[in-house]
Amino acid sequence: MIAFVRGEVAAVGVTSATLVVGGVGLELMCTPGTLATLRTGQTATLPTSMVVREDSLTLFGFVDDDEKAIFELVQTASGVGPKVAQAIVAVLAPDDLRRAIASDDVKALTRVPGIGQKGAQRIILELKDRIGAPVGGRLAAAPPAVAPWRDQVHQALTGLGWGAKDADRAVDAVAGMPEADGAAPDVGALLRAALQRLSKA
């Protein structure tokens, strides 16, 4: 088990980042919010979770230990694999997910691509006694912006499975939000807002 990775950021892509550790480039699959905190050439430390399959070893990286714990916990629910688990932590911050499960908020969970009403109900039922109460951490990801934020949010949406036209409309819809103003737009908040608009469409 690889608990965390620390190294220089060699590359940041749409769905993953490469960190150089001991002369070896490790590719970590990350959410858009986590990727937005990384800068090429800087040293980063990311908690990690390894998913082992018969034909692959995939390393997932997270912005903090709480996000990693949620990623691993939700996979214990029936029908939730690594891809859906990553989508959950991309759309819902850990405490947002805890509140949604505690309050039987099916609608909040169905905002996640790949989760329907029955799947949301099953996740709530199976995790309600195990996920715990909100810990008072971050309510939403607030990573530093990368320019241009519109392109990053658009790429994140298409990477999560939305069509290009839908992504365009969602980016346009959130462009007027306060989080989009200023020198450091809140990319994580803008992405969540865009996902919410897509789920209502």
From TrEMBL:
Residues 143-201 are annotated as: Domain III. The keyword Ion transport does not apply. Coiled coil: none annotated. InterPro entries: DNA_helicase_Holl-junc_RuvA_I (IPR013849), Hlx-hairpin-Hlx_DNA-bd_motif (IPR003583), NA-bd_OB-fold (IPR012340), RuvA (IPR000085), RuvA_2-like (IPR010994), RuvA_C (IPR011114), RuvA_C_sf (IPR036267). It is found in: Cytoplasm. Belongs to the RuvA family. HAMAP family: DNA_HJ_migration_RuvA. This is Holliday junction branch migration complex subunit RuvA. It comes from Nocardioides marinquilinus. The gene is ruvA.
